[in-house]
Structure formats: C-alpha cells, structure tokens
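From the methods appendix. Each design record in this collection lists the tokenized structure first, followed by the designed amino acid sequence. Records were kept in a plain field format so they could be parsed without special tools. The example shown here is representative of the layout used throughout.

RECORD:
FOLD TOKENS (576 positions):
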C-alpha cells in the first residue's frame, strides 16, 4: 500500500489554490527529444510532488494529461514538433486545486520506467550491486511509497537495459560496432556468421594489438577455453589467451557462439588461423573436449595439442575419488623434468589408483607431462619480475653445493642428492630443467657462481622472460570506438544481423553445478573405503566381520595394493 505524505501547506479545501513545492523538471515551452523521455520526466515530477496524473489523450502527435482527482485544474498538453519525434509542452497549468491527499492502492507513476530512470545512475559503475530489496527501501525513504518487490525487480532491469541497450538492439548494432572497432584499432580482424535467415550464429574478434604481441613477443602457446553465458540469449563464449614473460594472461582472440560444438570451434579457429597463421612450434592447451580436439586437428594439423592438467585430474576424480589423497604424486608427475621422477610418481599412481593411472596414460603422456612434452621454443634473443624471483630462489638453493670440472665447459654438481652434469657450452643439464624451461636450473646457476658469472641476464636463454619483451607486450593501445552517434559507416551496406531464436529452457530448477564435465568424465563410482572395491559400503565389507567396529578394529587389516600417505616419498620398490 503506497503512503503519501502531504506537505504542511496543503489545504483540504478543494476550490482554492493549494500551495506546494513545485519542481522544474517539466515546464511550459520545454522540448523533449522523445515522447517517452517526456513521460518519464513527468512521472518523476509526480513522485517528487506527491500526486498522480491520468492520461486524457495520447497519440503519436499529441499527449494530454490531467490530475487524477476530478475537478482539479492541473493540466498539461504537449505536441510533436514536425516529424522528428520531438515533443513540445505547449500548455501547462502547474497549479493544483485539489487537496492531493487521496490514497490509492498503487501509484500510477511508480512504474518500472519511471523508477528505472530514477535509479539509473546507481548502475553506471559496472561492479555495483543494487538488489530489488534495496530499491524498495530507497523509494520508501525518498518518496514515502511502499512499492512491491516485483516492481523493484522490473525497475532494476529497466535501468540496466537503458544503460546496456536491449539484446535485439545490440545484435542490430553489432556489425557497425565491429566495423568501427577495425577502423579505430588497425590490424583488428572481426567476423560474424549468420544462418540462412540472417540470425546470429557466431562472431569472432581479434584485436590488432593482441595479434602483433603474440607473433612478436610471446611464446607459441595458446590456451583455449569456453564459458557459458547467462542472460536472455544463452550461449557460449570462446576465448584464446597466451602467457607473457611475467606469467600473466594475455587475451589474443574471443568470440560468442550458441554452443560448444565441433562446427563452431572449427569456424572460430579458422578465423584465428587467418590472423596468426600456423607458426612453427605452435601449441594449443585445452581440456579433453572432443569438439576442440577435432577442430584443432582440422585447422592446425601441424600444431601440438596439449591437455590442461587441472581438467585432467578432474577426469580422474570421476573414475576414482582417491586421487584427492594422491594428488601430490600426480602433480609431481606433471611437472617432472626427468623420466626418473616421472616414472617413480606414476608407479605410485598405478598401485594406488589403477583406473586413474590408465586414464592419464591412455590420453598420451606427451600431451600433459613436462618431461615428454614434444614442443619447445628455442629462440635466441633486464628480466621480468617472475623470472627474477625464480632465479633468485635457485641461487639460494645452490649455495652449499659442490662443483668440480670434468671436461671442457662440463661440470659435475653435487647437490646432496642425485648429482647432475652441466654442459655450459650446450646449455644443457642432466636434470633437463634448463632445456625445458629456458631458465637456468639450480645446477647451472651453481656452475655460474663457480665461474664468476654474476649477471642474471646471461642466465636466460629465451626472450620471453626478458624485460624488453615484457614491456613490448603492453606497448600497444586498444582504442574505444566511442558512442554510437560518432560511428562511421561504409559506402556499401553492412551485414544485417537478427537475434537468434531463444530456445525454451527446461522445466524446473536449473542445475547449481555450472561446470560441464570434460570428455571421459562421468559420474564417480563409490568405493568401499576399507578394501577399495565397488558394490558395497564399509559396514558390509566382506574383508571385515559384521561386528568389527572402532578405529582399533579397522586398523588391523590394510587393503591389499594400497600405500600409506606417510610413505609416499620414501625410497621403496613398487611392483606394477
């Protein structure tokens, strides 16, 4: 129920002029750009002055309103100026002869458009959180109106639409926006795909600055990912990023499509190839999605397709949840520089989680392990902060090591564990860390100190970790296209894009788990925590009598073929 608070000066006599504080939002002679703008401004005036109006006449060329109280002299008339859609207030008697104390169940002007215009400024900051309940409370405090939660919700979305524009309008403007994006950012490449009816299917954007940066200053490793979008037009965002020398993400290309299918990934990657070609040593990294794998094989047949270790361990979890206990040997196997460490960690996984070990071995160890990685950039070109931190940590580790020469520029380094031979001429070490990372390993740094090399810059073999390349990565500027009123248009008509058809959503509450399982990842089978087999629970385990209970009884037997977590890194022999 709305509550109207009359001003102290209001008289209850209906046949005389009632004084009150009038606002100047609408006045005689004023011209508005559109009829809708005039109606909104008049609605805000009604909320501020605590009265309502009703429409007497309304057409495309005329708008006339009266006070909601019969017999009141308040009246406004406006007409369209020419045929340009502007409205001129030609008559306005802004004096009430009513008491303005009549209470109605709903304020006529407290609608989503008027309230949306009032709260619009609160959404100009992108990260602002302003809930419908906050809108209800603010309107009550400011105007003494008790609006419904649903009205606040509609006003919120109306304000957001007035800032962002409607989805259908956005699709119509998309070709002009991308055209101006190419004009203001040289080298930028964009493309839109539509169906036979001109409805949106997919788009691709690669900024010229990003393309140049990737080809000149970054490693040839591209990370591919997809994210599901929310809103009236549900779809998928495609994203391709690279890594700079300071271990930060650099966006290279992005796009929006309907779903994560082979056809859409193939079209998207074909546009990416038009931008960057297929340079030697190019590596793609993604999850095990079949659509991505098929698209990379078709468009970039000479590249290497690596797998994300994080997604891979999620696949293993669906087969065997015990990977959470043995995640340390898994990650050590992923990051191992030598086959000795890799094989030792894999033996632990084969005994502890045989199903998961078969899965990660079956996809190809060259796709996820560092030691068997097929592609490596060996280009010759001060250091980034991340590279300096890495090197200084290695300098501290090698302080007490012993070094002795065993040949020309070949040194033997005793590190207190496994010794390693370093060939300074070939830039190699038996630990293989130097060859694979491009940064000198602990053993090579120990030799550098022994041979009086004090310059950290000389300890880097690839250009990506050097400061000049890192600065060149961000020297480019991405320019804003400006408001739509300033956009340019080509002589030939631009492509026409219609909104896609909205598919009906499934009935019921949506799944709260937003993550889509990767290829090969299904529902996990529950295992018995005692024996590790499927098909029964711990209280019905056949290896233990039904009366067995308590921690002392459970510790009497150890399931065959498992390893205690406290003995993972002790030297012992494992039988496959």
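DESIGN:
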């Amino acid at each position: 129920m709305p509550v109207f608070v009359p001003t102290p000066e209001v008289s209850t006599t209906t046949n005389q002029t009632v004084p009150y504080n009038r606002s100047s939002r609408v006045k005689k002679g004023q011209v508005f750009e559109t009829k809708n703008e005039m109606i909104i401004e008049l609605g805000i005036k009604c909320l501020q002055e605590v009265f309502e109006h009703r429409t007497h006449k309304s057409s495309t060329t005329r708008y006339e309103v009266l006070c909601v109280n019969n017999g009141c002299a308040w009246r406004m008339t406006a007409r369209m100026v020419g045929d340009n859609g502007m409205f001129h207030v030609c008559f306005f008697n802004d004096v009430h002869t009513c008491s303005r104390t009549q209470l109605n169940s709903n304020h006529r002007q407290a609608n989503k458009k008027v309230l949306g215009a009032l709260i619009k400024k609160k959404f100009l900051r992108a990260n602002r959180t302003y809930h419908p309940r906050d809108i209800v409370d603010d309107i009550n405090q400011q105007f003494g109106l008790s609006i419904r939660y649903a009205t606040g919700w509609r006003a919120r979305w109306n304000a957001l639409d007035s800032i962002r524009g409607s989805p259908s309008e956005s699709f119509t403007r998309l070709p002009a926006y991308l055209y101006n994006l190419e004009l203001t950012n040289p080298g930028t490449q964009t493309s839109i795909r539509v169906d036979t009816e001109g409805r949106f299917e997919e788009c691709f954007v690669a900024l010229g600055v990003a393309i140049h940066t990737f080809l000149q200053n970054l490693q040839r490793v591209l990370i591919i990912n997809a994210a599901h979008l929310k809103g009236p037009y549900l779809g998928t965002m495609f994203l391709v990023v690279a890594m700079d020398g300071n271990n930060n993400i650099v966006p290279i290309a992005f796009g929006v499509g309907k779903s994560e299918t082979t056809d859409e990934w193939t079209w998207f990657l074909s546009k990416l190839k038009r931008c960057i070609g297929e340079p030697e040593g190019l590596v793609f990294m993604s999850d095990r999605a079949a659509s991505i794998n098929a698209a990379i094989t078709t468009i970039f047949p000479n590249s290497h397709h690596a797998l994300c270790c994080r997604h891979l361990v999620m696949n293993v979890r669906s087969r065997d949840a015990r990977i959470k206990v043995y995640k340390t040997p898994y990650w050590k196997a992923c990051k191992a520089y030598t086959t000795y460490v890799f094989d030792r960690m894999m033996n632990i996984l084969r005994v502890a989680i045989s199903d998961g070990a078969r899965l990660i071995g079956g996809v190809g160890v060259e796709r996820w392990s560092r030691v068997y990685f097929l592609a490596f950039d060996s280009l010759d070109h001060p250091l980034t902060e991340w590279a300096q931190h890495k090197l200084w940590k290695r300098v501290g580790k090698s302080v007490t090591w012993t070094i002795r020469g065993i040949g020309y520029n070949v040194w033997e380094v005793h590190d207190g564990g496994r010794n390693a031979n370093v060939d300074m001429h070939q830039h190699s070490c038996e630990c293989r860390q130097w060859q694979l990372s491009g940064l000198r390993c602990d053993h090579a740094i120990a030799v550098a100190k022994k041979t009086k090399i004090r310059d950290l810059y000389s300890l880097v073999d690839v250009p990506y970790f050097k400061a000049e390349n890192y600065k060149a990565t961000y020297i480019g500027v991405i320019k804003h296209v400006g408001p739509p009123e300033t956009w340019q248009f080509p002589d030939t008509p631009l492509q026409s894009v219609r909104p896609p058809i909205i598919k009906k959503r499934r009935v019921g509450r949506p799944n709260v788990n937003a993550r889509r399982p990767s290829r090969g990842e299904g529902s996990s089978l529950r295992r018995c925590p005692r024996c590790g087999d499927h098909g029964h629970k711990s209280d019905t385990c056949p290896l233990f009598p039904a009366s067995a209970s308590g921690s002392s009884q459970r510790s009497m037997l150890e399931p065959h073929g498992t390893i205690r977590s406290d003995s993972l890194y002790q030297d012992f022999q494992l039988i496959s």
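APPENDIX NOTE: Confidence is low (pLDDT under 50) at residues 1-19, 547-576.
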